[in-house]
Structures are given as structure tokens and as C-alpha cells.
Amino acid sequence: MKKTDTCTIENSEITVNGQTVFESPSGNFSDFAKEAYKNLQLNYPKFHKMDNLSKLAFLASEMILKDEDHTGTALVFGNRSSSLDTDFKYQESINVRENYFPSPAVFVYTLPNICVGEISIRHKMQTENAFFVLDEYDEGFLTDYAAQILHSGKAEKVLCGWVELYQESYKAFVYLLTT
User: Which of 34, 53, 59, 112 is most buried (CB neighbours < 10 A)?
Assistant: First the structure.
């Protein structure tokens, strides 16, 4: 297996294969994500409805997948905080009985694997996908899992990634593996 492309997003900066493609003085992730989406001229209106974890995974994936055909690409992602950032927002919407407004639009993002679903929909992927909640980034684990998918013939490529986001702390590291 070989790693063909990488993307890192942290500290309001996006790098692809070690080269900065976008950076912003924005202090919070939400503003940074909107600026990156606009500046990179991405065209996917559903982006604006996503939770922050999905936006992070989406932005990192777009830098690698672009507009090429990836129907045969699998996804293997992980993080530490699961969907905790969105879980808290959803909990706030149901805490007070007098102001009880649970949002189905927020509820759907209370599962961490929804971010790989968003990427799969965008790129019409019809292969395997997995999202693992791990104590720490474990490239060996993600790569070994990806290798099993590639060797089984279920996919031609695997996009692997660590997409950690909780409150204003975030980091994505995504890489594409091929045989």
C-alpha cells in the first residue's frame, strides 16, 4: 500500500501534501470552515447544514477527493470525542421543558459516522465505511483496517482519517491509500 495524498486541517490552516492551500486569521472553527468553503470554491449546498465535525471531515476529504470518480473508494475514519460537540448542542435543545425544541436536523449529527455518510453521498461512494472512536490517533490501526478492505477487493482506494473536533479544538489528518 502507498499513501498518495494527505490533508491536514488545524489552527485555521489547510495543508495538502505539505503545502498550505488556505489559511485564515479566524479564531473559531465555524467561521474558518465558512471562509474555507467559500475561498476554495466548493459547491455543495448541504455543507451549510452539516455539524462542525462533518464540515471538518468534508473539507479535508474534498482536498483529496476533488471532483474525480471515487465510487470505488472506501472510508475509514476515527476520532476521540465521537460526536460529543453536537451531542451537547442537542442536549441543550431539550434541557428546559418550557423551551423544548428538539431539532431533527441536529439529532441526525449525534452519531460520529454521519460525517463519512456525508462524504459518501457527495462522492457517490458505494463501498465500505467505518468510523472508530479511539483513545488517540492510531495510524497503524486505521491503515491495517484499510489494508483488509483493499486486499478483500471491496475497494480500489481507501480514504483514512482522524477528524477530532470538540468545542474550538480541532484537527483533521486525512490520507488516501492505494495498492
Answer: 53
- Burial label, 153 (beta-carbon count in 10 A; 0-12, 13-18, 19+): exposed
Per-residue pLDDT reduced to its tens digit, 124-162: 999 999 999 999 999 999 999 999 999 999 999 999 999
**C-alpha cell read off for 138:** 492510531
Write down the residue that cell numbers 482536498 correspond to: 63
Helix (H) or strand (E) holding 77: strand 73-79
Mutual orientation of helices 114-122 and 52-65 as an angle, nearest 10°? 40
DSSP 8-class letter at 112: T
- Write the CB contacts of 95 (distance below 8 Å, at least 6 apart in sequence): none
DSSP states along 120-179: HHHTT--S-EEEEE-SS--HHHHHHHHHHHHHHTS-SEEEEEEEEEETTEEEEEEEEEE-
Query: Which 3 state secondary structure label does DSSP give 71?
Result: coil
Residue with cell 476529504: 61
